[in-house]
Amino acid sequence: MTKIVIKEFEWHIHNISHIALHNELPSEVEEVSRKEVIILQSRNKRIVIIGKTDINRALAIVFEEIKNNKARTVTARDASRKERKFYQEKIGGKKTL
After folding, report:
1. Which residues contact 90 (CB under 8 A, 6 or more apart)?
2. Are 51 and 58 in contact (CB under 8 A)?
3. Which residues are CB-contacts of 40 (< 8 A; sequence separation ≥ 6)?
4. CB 75 within 8 Å of CB 17
5. Model's pTM, two decimal places?
6. Which CA distances in Å does 16 have to 12, 20, 24?
7. How far apart are CA 29 and CA 95, in angstroms?
């Protein structure tokens, strides 16, 4: 089981409006980050997490930085089929939508 500890999210109109383009909400990002996730390293030292919402939607979330348990979300979107499969293989449990 992998968890990430984020005590505070930095939200601005720019990242809120960007994730809205992908039909995501800040509350969904925060919800997923409190659950069991897969953590991947991305380009530019960004961190990608793949996890599920309370209604079992799989999301891929990219954080620009995580310092002192504070995170700035770059983007969030529905996880791709490949990401959902990877999550399922690593975490197990109920299949994601």
Report:
1. 38
2. yes
3. 47, 48, 49, 50
4. no
5. 0.86
6. 6, 6, 9
7. 19
Please, which residues bridge with residue 67 across strands?
70
pLDDT value of position 41:
79
Closest CA to 83 of 91, 93, 74, 73: 91
Reply yes or no on whether the pLDDT at 32 is more than 80. Answer: yes
Mean pLDDT, rounded, of the chain: 88
| Amino acid letter for position 42 | S
Alpha-carbon dihedral 8, 13, 16, 21, rounded to 10 degrees: -170
- CA 76/CA 29 separation, integer angstroms: 7
CA 82 centroid distance within chain: 15
